Amino acid sequence: MAHVVFAGLGFGGLYTLRNLLSDLPPGTRVTAVDHRDHFVFTPLLYEYLTGELAGDVVAPRFDTLLPADQVERVEAEVRVVDLPGRELWLGDGGRISFDALVLAPGSVPAFHGVPGAEAHGIPFYSFEDADRLKTTLRVREWAGGERPVCVVGGGVVGIELAFALAEFLARAGHAPGSTPVIVLEAMGEILREMSAGLRKLARRKLEEAGIEVRTSIRVLEVDEGSVVYSDGGITRLEAAAVAWAAGIQPSPLLEGLPAERHGRHGVGVERTLQLPGYPSVFVLGDAISYPGRVEGDPLPDTAQAAFQQAEVASKNLRSWLEEGLPRGEYRYGHLGDFLRVSRREAIADIRGVVMDGAAASLARRAAYLFRMPDWTIRTSAIRQWLG
Ligand SMILES: Cc1cc2nc3c(=O)[nH]c(=O)nc-3n(C[C@H](O)[C@H](O)[C@H](O)COP(=O)(O)OP(=O)(O)OC[C@H]3O[C@@H](n4cnc5c(N)ncnc54)[C@H](O)[C@@H]3O)c2cc1C
């Protein structure tokens, strides 16, 4: 009986697994390992922060998503992927051997060696991070004072987070402008990965929301309640909270792999998503960089890319199990970008067509509804969005 093991159940791993289960080759044993007990639909973490969507939609538990009679679930941290020995070494000392492996451990926040950033900055990558940010803001509010909330990083996550924080503060009863949200960006421009049209609209919306953006800033240090930065001179900015959205790096799990790495990106894989030299190992999501070993623009680290790869990975895994020959090739297709502004507003760039307002918000919700793992979650999301 072939034993297929999944390491990491995010957009890459979970969607590959669920696709595979829809037509599982007979005689296949499946084990799924993740150190969490829930999936995180990261594009909707902002809605969780603002209270628009609840945890059952944004972070559904794996036991509601994976049938226990088909999948053996292991809640543990994978510490080592031993490819020659075909084993995963777990943090609790356990080992799991595999015939085929789907490896999709995603990314971790990058702190770039900035002193105090890891200890005092609050990343925004997990459900727990969103809770920590909410709690910090509530505690600081209770302790009094109207210091600004600072977001380090003016990429998509930083800017969407700034909008969500402004909304969170308004809902908590802060008068407009009384507790400003300030974005600190290292480069001369925010949202560099987005189109010029989307960027221009975002700039306008940020201004309307009273969010201040400071560019060409080098953050030097973060400590309890302040951030020190250089913009020519040195400034210490007192802050109610410092949210850290200054980039990500691939999971440390990739470090020990006998695989080609590309700088700060993931590993190189074949277009079939197989790891070169290890045909029974499929790698996807943020953990990969250039499928087909074509260097140039690395794949974007997005759920959109991972979701597309999951289609190919599940088909190839099935045909590998049945015939020993994966056939599908992965090629990235960019469908569009969304940026959430508020409960009712978003900005969208769909194949070059830029729009904003309620129409963009609806398009964004429709796109994410389509990608949600099942109808129970979709129905809850619709109810909560309408409520
Ligand atoms: C706030 C936020 C908003 C985003 N918004 C968008 C968006 O709007 N659109 C978009 O396309 N992309 C978005 N992204 C990016 C998107 O979340 C990632 O690109 C995507 O999740 C990558 O999928 P993945 O499967 O590689 O990793 P993940 O989805 O991160 O899944 C990795 C899984 O592996 C598990 N894991 C990791 N290490 C281990 C280990 N050692 N042992 C056991 N388990 C482990 C984790 O618990 C997790 O479940 C956003 C990201 C963030 C943080």
Provide a concise account of the structure shown.
The protein has 387 residues and is α/β, with parallel strands linked by helices. 30% of the residues lie in helices and 26% in strands. The strands form 7 sheets. Strands 3-2-1-7-20-19 form a 6-stranded mixed β-sheet, with helices on one face. A 5-stranded parallel β-sheet has the order 9-16-10-11-12. It has a 3-stranded antiparallel β-sheet with strand order 4-5-6, with no helix packed on it.
Structural summary, described in words:
- With 387 residues, this protein is of the alpha/beta class.
- It has two domains: 3-35 and 76-109 and 249-322, FAD/NAD(P)-binding domain (3-Layer(bba) Sandwich), CATH 3.50.50; 117-246 and 337-383, FAD/NAD(P)-binding domain (3-Layer(bba) Sandwich), CATH 3.50.50.
- Helix content is 30%, strand content 26%.
- The chain contains ten helices and 24 strands.
- It has helices at 11-21, 45-50, 55-58, 117-120, 127-142, 156-171, 196-208, 303-323, 357-371, 375-386; strands at residues 2-7, 28-34, 71-75, 78-82, 87-90, 95-97, 100-103, 107-109, 122-123, 149-152, 181-184, 212-214, 218-223, 226-230, 234-238, 241-244, 248-250, 267-269, 274-275, 278-283, 288-291, 337-340, 346-350, 353-356.
- The strands form seven sheets. Strands 3-2-1-7-20-19 form a six-stranded mixed sheet, with helices on one face.
- A hairpin with a 3-residue loop joins β14 and β15 (234-238).
- The longest helix is centred in the C-terminal third of the chain and has 21 residues, at 303-323.
- The model has no long low-confidence stretch (mean pLDDT 93).
- Flavin-adenine dinucleotide (FAD) binds next to α1, β2 and α8.
